[in-house]
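User:
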Amino acid sequence: MLKYVGIRFFGITALLLVTLVLAACAANSSAGESTTDAATTSSATESANTTTAENSSENGPAAPVAAPNAVTFTIVQEGTEARFSIYELLMGQDKTVVGTTSAVEGSISVDPANPSTATISPIRIDASTLATDSSRRDGAIKRWILETNQADYQYITFTPTAVEGLPENVNIGEPFTFSIIGDLTIRDVTKQETFTLTVTANSETELVGLGQTKVMRSDYNLTIPSVPSVANVGEEVPLEIAFTAVAG
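Assistant: Predicted structure:
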């Protein structure tokens, strides 16, 4: 009898040991698979992030992402004018020179239910089309000042990096004012500038506005050729963009 009990006890003990070993193996296998899955997931995530970073680097800064319900208003040439003004002492007389062009590209995306999320695309001005009241001066601007006769310097661009002061609500016919901070590029020089914009929604499909700032000529290495009739030229240059933008 005792021999039988001992044999039975030994069998049960062996069975328990085998069960524990198998359970431990299963746990280790599960942990290994979990670790492998985690490593695979981590590797895939890192690969995706790397690909995203590489694409971002290759394609340049990402364009602003508009809200899902945003309406995009595109600047049109009719009713749009970019202009600069600068002081000259011309033949002993004070003069304010104004250069203008309607060749402006850009857009504004606005969610009517949440105007504070509005985004603004880069603004591009074809500076080779700037014209003043003197063809001789226009030629000097193209050849020596802005050098827009060179393809690399044809455009002046403003790339927004931040928008401040947008209202939570907008009513048709009521103007609102806010600030746009961004990178202004003239020729091969880029500086951070801030434009103050006043915009009015004329209707659900049309926006009109005026953006204004002042830049220093020396900041962009803009030198004026020496001309006997021009005794002095101002250092400060006001810039303005009066625009009309339509939905669609």
